[in-house]
Amino acid sequence: MSRPIQIRVNGEPREVPEGTSVEALLGVLMLPRDAVAVERNARLVRKQERERTLLAAGDQIEIVTLVGGG
Questions:
Q1: Do residues 26 and 33 lie in contact, with contact meaning Cβ atoms separated by under 8 Å?
Q2: If DSSP codes are grouped into helix, strand and coil, which group holds residue 64?
């Protein structure tokens, strides 16, 4: 069983299991994966990197939802 780690998502504390990927976090948060931008510790996480980018204790995650329109 994975132990929980503490991270911050958009400034709010959150606990996730150790070994959680950025992609899995988006699933837990029920966010549309194709319509968000994700930064981990002020570094953009590209879509193709999300599955292999694992969260670590103390990570600062910023998630921005992209909105289209005219």
A1: yes
A2: strand
User: Are 37 and 64 spatial neighbours (Cβ–Cβ below 8 Å)?
Assistant: yes
pLDDT in tens, 30-42: 998 889 999 999 9
Cα–Cα dist 67/25, whole Å: 20
Distance CA 62, CA 7 (A): 11
- DSSP annotation of 54 reads B
Q: Specify the pLDDT at position 69.
A: 64
Q: List, in order, residues 6 or more apart from 53 with CB less than 8 Å away.
A: 21, 22, 23, 40, 45
Give the global pTM: 0.90
